[in-house]
Amino acid sequence: MNSLDPRVNRLPQLNEAISTKAPLDQFGTYEVFVQPKEGKPFQHEGIVHAPNLELAWVLAKETFTRRFTCVSLYVVDTRDVYVSPLTEGDKNVYDVLPQVAEQSGSKKNFEIYHLVKRGKQHVHVGTVQAVLPQEAMQLAGKQFNNGKVVFNVWAIATDTIRFTNDEEKELWLTLPEKKFRDASDYKGGDKLKEFLEKR
Amino acid sequence: MNLALKELLYKMADDQLILGHRNSEWTGFGPILEEDIAFSSMAQDKVGQSLALYTLLQTLGESDPDTVAFTRNANQFHNCILVELPNQEYDFSLIRHFLFDTAEALRFEALGNSSYEPLAQLARKIRGELRYHTLHANTWMKQLGSATEESITRLQNSLQIALPYALGIFEPSPYEAELIDQKIFTGEVALKEKWMAKVESVLNQTQLHLPDWKTITPVYGGREGKHSEHLQPLLDEMSEVFRIDPSAEW
Fold first, then answer.
1. Is the CB of B32 inside 8 Å of chain A's CB atoms?
2. How far does B121 lie from chain A, in Å, by closest CA?
3. pTM of the full predicted structure?
4. Which of B223, B212, B213 is nearest to B171 (CA)?
5. Distance of CA B189 to the CA centre of its chain
6. ipTM > 0.90, yes or no
């Protein structure tokens, strides 16, 4: 794929080996995942630039959760996100994942994310135990591949994630009252209509 | 009780409003986009907190929040001088943010047990915002206070400039004893002690040097309406749109 849009050129290719996302040439990038409500899965919201994981978490809080409902977030270094090939149409990425033999060694937890609709976010679907991220994706295929087409899979080792702890959840206590941060709260259209009718 | 309580509420509200306005001047000019957004959001929180405090004052017989915020002159404001100083470079704004918000978080923490229940409720309600503000400040202090020679030198110079003004946050109040007796507030002296310990504990995790407190002369006057030449221009700019049509609906 060759595009004038660098984001398109960064997309993983079909026959590429599973590897980490490529960082950009600025401050390092960190991927931000947000939980909109208790009981709902975390979903990918975007990236922040930051000098380290802790500041990434601090900056992600206002960059991605200053408007809409949120109960928790977490961040991870972009280089710790393992990305599968990307498919389209009715091709399920689990059908084209490179196969890896079962690994020996100590297993650790990997968080698994699915992209099931183009243009939408990757959503957390569960956790698997594996030695390698490639193996984690393969295991995820057995556990979370329910027939629905999945275009892309991410695997992230749980111990590389900066989570929100229980005490920090109070950061979003007053968020529901901050409707003024949403343009629709100003009812600009209604006010303009009223003003024009008065003329 | 009323006079003592009003004095406390006015100085807190004015601090938040003026620093909220100052920090909002960074909107669009922050060092990186993410920090610009975070600093602007916290500025908005501060203005929101000042509104909550002015609303409490209204229940005690004062004018409505907009009138109080936008129609007073500099000598009628009770903020400490620290918050009205120009932003200068980002290092100064960060140091001020750290010194002021550490004090504000401790002040509201104490007010969570205030006998004046509306203030105690407000303190409990905004504890998450204050936690974020201090977390943001402390994280940057630890990062930049140990990063490069330039970042350490810049922060150190700003610290030297800001400290005398920061001690002005705790300018003695004529109502100190009354506020303590009536269990409204633990008082400026106790707050200053806690603040100094907290500032020390964060700066000890950096390469910044904290001068001996005894060598720093506090800059007072703000609580009595005696301000620097920087406050009136800020007020003129802040109230410019309001004054065009005070009855406008927003």
1. yes
2. 13
3. 0.90
4. B223
5. 17
6. yes
